[in-house]
Task: structure prediction
Amino acid sequence: MKAVYPIVLTKDGQYYIVDVPDFGISTFGKSMYDAIKMARDAIGIAGIDREDHGEKIPEATSFEEIVKKTTEGIVTLVDVDFVDYRKKHERRAVKKTLSLPSWLNEAAGEKGINYSAVLQAALKKELGISEKEIEKEYKQ
Result:
């Protein structure tokens, strides 16, 4: 789901405070660019958190309505793609059951091998996925 939400930016000393009325949340940044980036991140987190708890993501209030209610600060818009946000930030582990020959399990146990780490490394190699690609995909 893609959406555009109004935010209110207020300069407070060296920071820009961001209020996101539709989610009842605030964040901040050292520059306007940073504040808008943080707003997008905060909206993304709040949205997928609501989905994970069976709640609906709120509809965006109209820009004009927020402007009418705002006495201080700059009202602007921030776009968020919740599907893309989830894809880039969901790093939860998934438990898998696997079978090994007993001799291999014993040999690995004697060496103190971490099965999860070995399986992840092998899957990345098999799929041709490098650490740089992971960083590029998930740390934008």
User: Anything to note?
Assistant: The longest strand covers residues 2-12. The mean pLDDT is 89. The CA atoms of residues 18 and 27 lie 5 Å apart. DSSP finds six helices and four strands in the chain.
